Amino acid sequence: MRLAQLEYFLAVAERLNFTSAAKALYISQPALSKQIALLEEELGARLFIRNSRKVLLTAAGKQFKRDLTAIRQDLNDAVCRAGEIAKADRRTVRVGCFDGKINQDFLPPFYQHIQKIDPDIRISLQMGVFEEIKVALDQGEIDIMLTLDKAFHPDAGYSVRRIAKRAGALVYHQSLLPPDRLAQPDITAFQDAPLLLVSKSDAPIIYEQTLSDLKRAGIEPPEIIEVRNTTTLFTYLEMGYGYTIMFRDVVGSSHSLHALPLNLPYMETWVLAVWKKNHTVAELLMDGFGKRAPPL
Questions:
Q1: What span, in angstroms and rounded, lies between the C-alpha atoms of 13 and 6?
Q2: In terms of DSSP bridges, do strands 48-50 and 55-57 run parallel, antiparallel, or are they unpaired?
Q3: Structure confidence at residue 296 (pLDDT)
Q4: What CA–CA distance (Å, rounded) separates 214 from 92?
Q5: Residue 220, Cβ neighbours under 10 Å: how many?
Q6: Who contacts 289 (Cβ-Cβ below 8 Å, separation ≥6)?
Q7: pLDDT over 50 at 295, yes or no
């Protein structure tokens, strides 16, 4: 049974005239009659009673018409719903962003760039730890991922843009150092202090990279306190539990948190926008924003 045969049946059932139905379907009357006969043979039931002057539906034909009319309406509704959902999807960009303390240096410009392209586009923002948003991107749950270069290994299947550069800094609470070292601290002042990091399971790349960078700077922390996210990390910082490596502006207007600039090239960090290369909408939206990452 083919969908075309069902349309042929409905055309005849609605008009009760083979000649009129054949014209509406743009086929010959003999061809239409043959298709109806094949349909009746497959169903094992007569659908029409006809003579040279009149066409009538049998009881089976009447029921078949009612059922097919309802099914056709359901199909039309399904097509309309799918179209509306697709239209809505085209107007929503799903963005996954790392759970950072401060995002003002890149999120507003990112949003403004997209709005210039299409003011009707909505951004659906999903915050999470680095591994969560990477998995979401891989599984197609988000369209664009905002992450850090130290948390992302480049892959040929992704397009990457550098959208914000951050200078590295050692961030700490003033209670962590004695008053005589607070005025002009250097990195060696933190040699014996615990290091605060988002857990290795949640941010494995940035975890290892931070330890490597500190080792290059001459610091090997005696203790590492792992936390679930940056919100918890900053709570620990505010309590004076240890220090962390972030960027200079993260302390904002805080009077108790301080940032010791680390003027070392390997301590610099880029915020990246990452999306799958076959994602045409993301490619269009990100065109011209930020700097292209170095080739893989």
A1: 10
A2: antiparallel
A3: 43
A4: 41
A5: 10
A6: 110, 113, 161, 163, 273
A7: no
